[in-house]
Amino acid sequence: MAPTLQHTVSPFLEPGPRTKPNSLAVLQLSRDNFVPVYLQEASGEHDGYVEGAVINTRYGSFPHSTLLNVPWGSQVRASKVDTGSRGRKRKRQLDEEAGCETSEPIEDENEKGNSNGADKEHGDGDEAKQLVTDASGFIHVLPPTPEIWTTSLPHRTQVVYTPDASYILHRIRARPGSTLIEAGAGSGSFTHASARAVYNGSPVEGKRQGRVFSFEFHEERYHKMKKELSDHGLDGVVTLTHRDVYAGGFLVGGKSPEADAVFLDLPAPWEALPLLSRQRPQLKEGEVGEAGAKPWVSPLHPKKSVLLCTFSPCIEQVTRTVSALRHLGWVDIEMVEIANRKLHTARDRVGLYLPVDRGVNNSAKDVEEAITKLTEIEERFRENARPKQSADGTEPAKQESKAATNGKTPMNGAALKYPWLDGRLVTRGEPEIKTHTSYLVFAVLPMVWTEEDEAVAMAKYPLGRERFVVSVMGKASMKEERREAMQQKQGNRKSRRKDRDEKLAEVEG
Amino acid sequence: MYSIIRPNTWVAIRLPSGVTRNILVTPNATISLGKYGSFPANFIIERPYHITFEIEDQRPDEKFSRIRIVPASELYAEIFADEESPDCSAPTADAAKSVISAEGGAEFTLVDAESGKLVTRSNGEVIDENARQTLTQDEIEELKREGNNAGKDVIAKLMLSHTALDQKTSFSLAKYKLLKTKKYIRRFQILPVDVPNLAHWQLEERDASKILDLRAEMIALVGSWGNVHYGGDSVYLEDPQATCEQGEEALAPLREDLLKGRWLVVDDTGGLLVAAVAERMGVLFPELDEDKSNLDEQTKRQRQEAEAEAEENQDGDVVMADVQDSAEKPNDGAKPKKPRSSDFEIPFSQTNTITVVHSASQPSLAFLGYWNFDAVAPSHVEHPLCRHLMCLTWLQLLKPELDTAYSTPPLTASTELLASWKPSRRGNFHRKRRRFARTKHIVEATRAGGFSGLVCASTMDPISILKHTLPLLAGGAPVSMYSPTLEPLAALADSFSVSRRTAWTSGTVPEVVVKTVEELERWEGNEQFPLNPTLLLGTSIQTSRARRWQVLPGRTHPLMTERGGTDGYVFTAWRAKPAEGKVAAKGKFKRRKLETGSAAESEAAETPIA
Ligand SMILES: C[S@@+](CC[C@H](N)C(=O)[O-])C[C@H]1O[C@@H](n2cnc3c(N)ncnc32)[C@H](O)[C@@H]1O
Q1: Domain limits of chain B?
Q2: Which of A250, A355, B337, B518 is most buried, judging by how many CB atoms fall within 10 Å of its CB?
């Protein structure tokens, strides 16, 4: 895999204008086929190959050198690379794999890229050759973003996709400077989106750095993700800890992350919630408190409201989570489900007289066309029924077919010239849609407010100097209220009439 | 997120009815919640957000009502009781109906009048026989007017008067409680005015069309796909120290190498979109103490004292002054002033900026007022947007020579002449010069392009927006455009259809063949190709919808109705840098030889995106 990469700023956060060596780039092979690649400079003495590292895809071969130091978004042509017969065979295999690629999560994938139909390979020719551009084939190279990463990352678990992740981060107010606790890290899909959300630049004295504190107890996943984060230059933003959070909680190095946002994608969020309290959680039944236990440290920001989201596929999990949240003092609890749909545009080409082609429906485009066709058939039928004039009868038939096409040619002419303008523009959904991802539970934990706090605030903002009134009721609603009161008092016809007059005056005025 | 309610900030008050209202929290004001009562604003200033308060009864010796914090255990008392009761999952519609009709449509929370605690069936409190009297509507009103027990008393009495109480299932009881609670209990919550809350309020309680029905899901998608995030630490151009005798030649030259992390925005949502973008970039909220890490207690205290003093002087009024005048003002504030800057100093950061292109002569960003920012006349209060938000008109962007502010050379005057002028004239002179330098900078920097992304929520045709903005985007930069309706986005996506792209790259369109890649980047558009179809990659349209659920013991289900009926759509893509000349896709999977033109019809999944 990638050599240990050194990066000052993550390509996810500040990609710069061009592709760089030893940094993550994403190759777009086709519409939804993205391949993450760590671009390397050709270093003859290291691997001894002519072109250095090469990416072979069904769209051609791409030596890294053709992808390096180009502006992001560049369309790059394929090169003629001699991969040798063994290489070609291997390539075909990979193509096949890519052909039947599914979006199913792939557990514990060993080599990145395999599932995407691309493979880094080293040219095995010995003699030096100039790179020759292939006659056809190209790809585009894009800077990595959490959106692209989510669709191209090696799946080790179920992941949170952009429609959910974007909404969650918006709702829990993960913004530059926020401190977010996340468990479990899983495949890191949500982690990448969080890192982008909280990132607020280089450390400056006095500035609170946006951070993600992520937890994962599965050892292999933890190690894979740890490596990934450092390869992506994100270890300054994300702190990953190997831990079972149900038992071990959320402190890092014994210290509080002082989180103001929390995201739990765990099988049993209610097990973790007591450890996300502001005070020492109550002991579970059967547990014995340690004698002389150290003072309890909360992982939450003491001076801020904390916003939380849990992500659970089953309603039973939601019920338990919500109940636990209520008992732990969380407020504004809300459960939401996100349904996302993609829409495709197409040109709907329907017509009896359109050229026969893929994507063309050669049936009647409207009633008129149907009538024309039916009339034609009737005519032909009558003609055939008539006693034949010539012996072979070929001539009338020929004439007829000519007549049939003649009437339609004008329509055809335009269609052939600009097919992309032809037909009606339509949008459709996808044949298969995600109808359920998970239930999102949101909640807020206000900060603790003590008598002392109150006394300080009271002293700073004493009473007795109230001079004016700020009303939350707009003029209209104040009027309404007065009216309501009056109606209740009088309840007579007079008031109702007055009411109506008032309303009319409002409408007219 | 704000932790405590700062004086002179906008907050959202959530009323017992669930409705939220935005108000400016001004010290020494009385906040009136209409029929729910009123209380001094000083009771909530520097108190935490999200806490639930309750307005108490006025004490006999006081002229105001006090408020108390309602603990969560009290908020959820009924639900906890329901959780414990075994029959919570056996509701019948009839029971619910009979309960409702029994009290003429009124529904209640059961509260103990003496202790102020909630009474629920399952915790077995005995209802006082003597209290089993029926109250009339008049009596309720009477009690309310007297206000002699903060509404709770009324509810308790009503509840007690309900003789058939113990026959009700907890299901119907819960319904009862909920609705009546909304009407009488004087509880409220203070929420920060941030983008999600403001959008929600505008959508559900004000005019959704003003923000083009932009729902939270959509704001989130637009921002994410636009890759909007913190765009780098602020970098400023050096003040050229221009004297008043110097004109245009003294302007600081544009440093394209410094420009970084800039998003281009077209906003017809009155500034909500700009606010959402600013929130994601960390420039919407002024930096607060609790956002800082190493602030020692002493500086904190000093600052607080200074703040309090300043407020005292203001006497509750918010003093707004033109940002441009700040340099001339005597140094009377608590903050030390930096050395006087010249007229040509550029206040804008070169990184992490938002550039708004607007169609009227002034940007329409009124919603930014909720974060104390006025785009037309920025206040002297150091708001991060003052240094990170730039606005220009489409005319300034596309035909700057026709714009007076841009094309009129700056005034100059000798120091002696300047000294002879009246202060007002002098002020005007400086203002005009500053305006010139800024306009020039904004126009030049925008036209230099290289933007990190384009984010739109506009009523203008997206094709025309892209025609003029695509050349300004850096390679790989995302485009993220919201529309409340699908059709404009469908037409946009269609102009990037595979067939169009194939035709374009096939080398058969005469107008295209003769042009260089650079020229094609600024393609003017024609009937067949409204846009250069090779300039965007991965074009896609999507929509999201949040469905809210009620989660209660034994009564969990999706909400029956929801506001904000329109869906809204987002178009996304990335800016491509097409290769020069004819580019052919690999033909391995081409099933048959196709003629030019109809080759485009085969939108085979394997066809690489051009
Ligand atoms: C569904 S995955 C999370 C996926 C992740 N949100 C993403 O977007 O890629 C759940 C993860 O939580 C981890 N996990 C489960 N219980 C845990 C615990 N008690 N402590 C830490 N991690 C845990 C699992 O190992 C798994 O990797």
Answers
A1: 1-193, 228-451, 582-610
A2: A250
Say if the Cβ atoms of A303 and B543 lie within 8 Å.
Answer: no
What one-letter code names the amino acid at B314? Q
The pairing of beta strand A24-30 with beta strand A33-38: antiparallel
Query: What is the chain A residue with the closest CA to B33?
Result: A472
Q: What's the pLDDT tens digit per position in B392-434?
A: 999 999 999 999 999 999 999 999 999 999 999 999 999 999 9
Tell which residue, B104, B38, B472, B463, has the closest CA to residue A470: B38
How far is B601 from B261, CA to CA, in rounded Å? 39
Tell me: the pLDDT tens digits for B123-159? 223 333 333 344 455 555 554 454 434 455 555 555 5
Q: Given an 8 Å threshold on Cβ–Cβ distance, is B544 in contact with A163?
A: yes
CB-defined site of ligand 1, < 6 Å: A 157-160, 183-184, 186-190, 215-218, 221, 244-246, 265-267
Residues of chain A with CATH 3.10.330.20: 24-88+108-142
In b/e form, how buried is each residue of B140-149, taking b as 16+ CB within 10 angstroms? Answer: beebbeebeb
Contact assessment for residue A213 and residue A259, using Cβ atoms and an 8 Å cutoff:
yes
Strand-pairing partners, residue B338, are none
Task: Report H helices in A461-492.
Answer: 475-490
SS3 A184: coil
In chain B, count of helices (H) and strands (E)? 20, 15
Measured from the Cα of A271, ligand 1's closest atom is 19
The answer to whether A221 and A186 have CB atoms below 8 angstroms apart is yes
pLDDT band at A360 (very low <50, low <70, confident <90, very high): confident
pLDDT band at A471 (very low <50, low <70, confident <90, very high): confident
Cross-strand partners of A26? A36, A142
DSSP β-ladder status, A439-445 and A424-429: unpaired
Q: State the Cα–Cα distance between residues B488 and B534, nearest whole angstrom.
A: 19
pLDDT per position as a tens digit, A170-214: 999 999 999 999 999 999 999 999 999 999 998 887 788 999 999
Tens of pLDDT, residues A263-296: 999 999 999 999 999 988 876 655 655 555 678 8
Residue-level length of chain A = 509
Distance from CA of A390 to the nearest CA of B (A): 40
Multiple choice CATH, A146-282+297-342+430-483, 3.40.50.150, 3.20.190.10, 3.40.50.1000, 3.40.50.300: 3.40.50.150
Q: Is the pLDDT of residue B101 over 70?
A: no
Residue spans of alpha helices (H) in A311-450? 315-327, 367-385, 394-406, 409-417
pLDDT category at B511 given cuts 50, 70, 90 is confident
> Tokens in use for A404?
């049939």
**Nearest-5° angle of CA B133, CA B171, CA B53?**
75
Distance A117 CA to ligand 1 centre (A): 28
Minimal Cα distance from A202: which residue of B?
B233
Backbone angles phi, psi at A226, to 5 degrees: -55, -45
The dotted CATH code for A24-88+108-142 is 3.10.330.20
**Chain B within 8 Å of A236 (Cβ-Cβ)?**
no
In which residue ranges of chain A is CATH 3.40.50.150 found?
A: 146-282+297-342+430-483
Listed residue (B161, B220, B262) closest to A171, CA to CA: B220
3-state secondary structure A48-112: CCCCCEEEEECCEEEEHHHHCCCECCEEEEEEECCCHHHHHHHHHHHHHHHHCCCCCCCCCCCCC
Cross-chain residue pair B38–A469, CB shorter than 8 Å: yes
CA-proximal residue: ligand 1, atom 25 (nearest): A218
Partner residues linked to B458 by β-bridges: none
